[in-house]
Amino acid sequence: MDSKKLIEELSNAYGAPGFEEEVLDVVAKYSEELKIESDTMNNMYLTSNIEEEKPTIMIDSHLDEVAFMVQSIEKNGLIKFVTLGGWIATNVPAHTVMIRNSDNEYIKGIVASKPPHFMTKAEREKQIDINELRIDVGASSREEVIETYKIPLGAPIVPDVRFEMKPKNIMMGKAFDNRLGCAAVIETLVNSSKKDLGINIVGTLSVQEEVGLRGAEVSAKKAKPDLAIVFEASPADEQFKDENSAQAALGKGVQIRHRDSSCIYHPGFIKFAKEIADTNNIKYQEAVRLSGGTNAGKIHLSNNGVPTLALSIPSRYIHTHYNYASLDDYKEAIKLVEKLLEKLNWDEIKKMNNKFYRR
Ligand SMILES: [Zn+2]
């Protein structure tokens, strides 16, 4: 599979929380040889040969990206919006965005704020309030926004960024959190469908993570896993920390998480993964995250408790318009999961849950 092409198409697809349809189209296009199912939330499930007696591993990624929604349209044609997911106000103004209209066309707009020429000294020094920002699509009246641009209330709004490659396998684009994870789920499922493994795999592409891990609450119930791996894009901190405290750097391999605010990841599963990485010379970095969370928050508490591992691809500047990540780190993540899946079976799961092994 052409990983770069897959990531490019996923990154360019628009998928605000609750409006993930276009990302699902890309997933379906690359998963033709798999069985595809979905539910009423739009979570997608990818499987191949399921055999009753084998344990089931859920391999998850969320589909959505941090985005916005149209809240109201003002008399002068400016659009007021709310956030869907975690944005910092200073990262939002003076960027372009795409608003989906009622014909399913995307309308470009600028996130506008009062030009500096018209600001008082006090206004210039004041912190930006996200509720005071507006989107300008080039219209001059409310009627024009509604009739010419056909923008309704509740329309999803996403960052307007196109994917590109930089030297040394560095990728630039939007929504690497978590389209890198989506690409990893697809690639893992397609590759492993050609092998005879000791484990059943359910690939879940879960909706609405950025608004509180909502899709995964349902997808974990349907997948009923015995074990889970969550693919994520972790915020890279190498630009802001020294060498010893940085936990996510581009080019240093796949990141294995020990904890974040949603989960203390299963020590036995982490140990097992690190042993496999060491044996196969797979590059990895480890993280003890203070904040943040992943779909593991819901998955590890489902189905009587599920040993869960989070594998992340470090990505700079997530939750803003523009991200960087390394294709090499992505490939290390794929390699690690492939080797893990080749080894897993009921005995290995028993081993990682053994109280002597896991400590
Ligand atoms: Zn994410």
Core attributes:
twelve-stranded mixed beta sheet; 2 domains; 359 residues; binds zinc ion; alpha+beta; 27% strand; 10 helices; Elongation Factor Tu (Ef-tu), domain 3; six-stranded antiparallel beta sheet
Task: Describe what you observe in this structure.
The strands form 2 sheets. Strands 1, 2, 3, 10, 11, 12, 13, 14, 15, 16, 17 and 18 form a 12-stranded mixed sheet that branches. α1 packs across α5, α5 (176-192) packs across α9 (327-343) and α7 crosses α10 (346-353). Helices cover 28% and strands 27% of the residues. The mean pLDDT is 95. The radius of gyration is 21 Å and the shape is globular. It is α+β, with helices and mostly antiparallel strands and 359 residues long. It has helices at residues 3-12, 21-30, 121-125, 142-148, 176-192, 214-223, 267-279, 296-299, 327-343, 346-353; strands at 35-38, 44-47, 56-62, 67-73, 79-84, 96-100, 106-112, 134-136, 156-159, 164-165, 170-173, 200-206, 227-235, 254-260, 263-264, 284-288, 308-316, 323-326. It folds into 2 domains: 3-65 and 174-353, Aminopeptidase; 67-159, Beta Barrel (Elongation Factor Tu (Ef-tu), domain 3). Zinc ion binds at residues 62, 177-178, 209, 232-233.
